[in-house]
Design brief:
The protein is mostly beta strands and 249 residues long. The protein contains no helices and 15 strands. Strands 1, 3, 4, 6, 9, 12, 13 and 15 form an eight-stranded antiparallel sheet that branches.
């Protein structure tokens, strides 16, 4: 008679328990908007030490007063001294209550999740007064400019502070410059999901079709748009790097 195979031991809960490595401890902020303990503070209401002018890397020429950063349109775009790759970003912005204009000429700005060159080169998350202000949908507030309209319009009225919380995954390039993984972005606007792991087809362009240019890490950039409406303001900007590599100064 054939021997019976020995019975296998019964599975136990411990078989699928993982005890190491333990995740690092991060102390959360006092509120969802406050920076956690591992965040890099980019603007805390006091100075622009973390920022430079995009055009020539000179000191950033925007206006800091009463804990708020206000766009100086004559000074042009500003960007961070550090470069980043994959990150979580928190940023608060406000269209002035007395805003004028319509469409793209009403409270226009943007945060570039990767600034890959001068001017508006890079990947832009649009900032605009989109409270009762129609424009093309892939250019309204919360759009990944000219590529992905927001899933919903979560805009507050002018004069009220608004928040963006962003998870950015940078594109990956092979040694010969080909894209092996595209850029992706998840965005919450005022706590509402408006971009759900959106895949970008390349840099965000005002004119033309998007395409990729290889980069490894890049600054964050804030736009001084040339529309004639009164300038926007920002506050409470911080970032958490997600790939374990420190941003270069």
């Amino acid at each position: 008679m054939a021997q019976e195979a020995p019975a296998r031991p019964a599975p136990k809960p411990q078989d699928t328990e993982q005890w190491s490595p333990t995740p690092p401890v991060v102390t959360p902020g006092a509120s969802s908007a406050a920076a956690p303990s591992d965040a890099i503070i980019l603007f805390d209401g006091r100075s622009l030490d973390q920022w430079v002018a995009t055009k020539d890397k000179s000191p950033a020429g925007w206006i800091v007063a009463n804990g708020v950063l206000t766009v100086n349109k004559q000074a042009g775009n500003i960007e961070t001294r550090r470069s980043f790759r994959n990150f979580q970003l928190h940023l608060e912005w406000r269209v002035p209550e007395n805003v004028t204009g319509s469409g793209q000429g009403r409270g226009n700005s943007g945060v570039f999740l990767a600034s890959t060159g001068p001017g508006d080169a890079g990947y832009e998350l649009q900032i605009l007064d989109s409270y009762n202000n129609p424009t093309y949908v892939n250019g309204q507030a919360g759009s990944l400019y000219k590529q992905h309209p927001p899933l919903v319009n979560a805009s507050r009225r002018p004069g009220e502070w608004q928040t963006y919380d962003v998870i950015w995954t940078a594109p990956v390039f092979s040694a010969d410059g080909k894209v092996t993984a595209p850029a992706r972005a998840t965005v919450l606007h005022n706590g509402v999901l408006i971009q759900n792991d959106a895949v970008l087809a390349g840099e965000t362009l005002y004119i033309g079709k998007p395409s990729y240019r290889p980069y490894s890490a890049a600054p964050l950039k804030l736009q001084a748009h040339g529309d004639p409406s009164p300038p926007l303001s920002f506050r409470n900007i911080w970032v958490r790097e997600l790939d374990g590599a420190a941003g270069s100064p």
